Task: inverse folding
């Protein structure tokens, strides 16, 4: 019900966070449903994000938990580190390249 009645944000970063929260596939279904109901501009922006090459999940990052452990991140902190990297990539503050992600991980303090 909340998905149906809450207007989507018009800001691209907030739309990306929405897609991260619900997942790429679920968001595609939600977007198609809402577009049919409301015909909002943000629905079209959201569809553009979903169809694009944006990284919207930890599994789409160009680095994984094994890479982080190799870099010295404690296993208990791997999830937190990957989530932090995803947020930076979604906000376009960091490129989703292995080299950039590794350099950023080296700055983290856990």
Result:
């Amino acid at each position: 019900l909340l998905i149906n009645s809450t207007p989507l944000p018009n800001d691209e970063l907030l739309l990306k966070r929405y897609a991260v929260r619900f997942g790429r596939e679920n968001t595609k279904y939600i977007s198609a449903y809402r577009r049919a109901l409301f015909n909002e501009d943000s629905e079209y922006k959201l569809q553009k994000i979903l169809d694009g090459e944006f990284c919207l999940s930890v599994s789409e990052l160009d680095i994984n938990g094994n890479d982080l452990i190799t870099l010295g991140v404690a296993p208990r902190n791997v999830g937190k580190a990957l989530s932090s990297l995803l947020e930076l990539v979604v906000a376009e503050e960091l490129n989703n390249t292995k080299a950039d992600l590794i350099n950023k991980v080296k700055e983290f303090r856990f």
Notes: The chain is about 65% helix and 0% strand. Helices lie at 2-5, 12-22, 24-38, 41-51, 65-70, 78-90, 98-107. The chain has a mean pLDDT of 87.
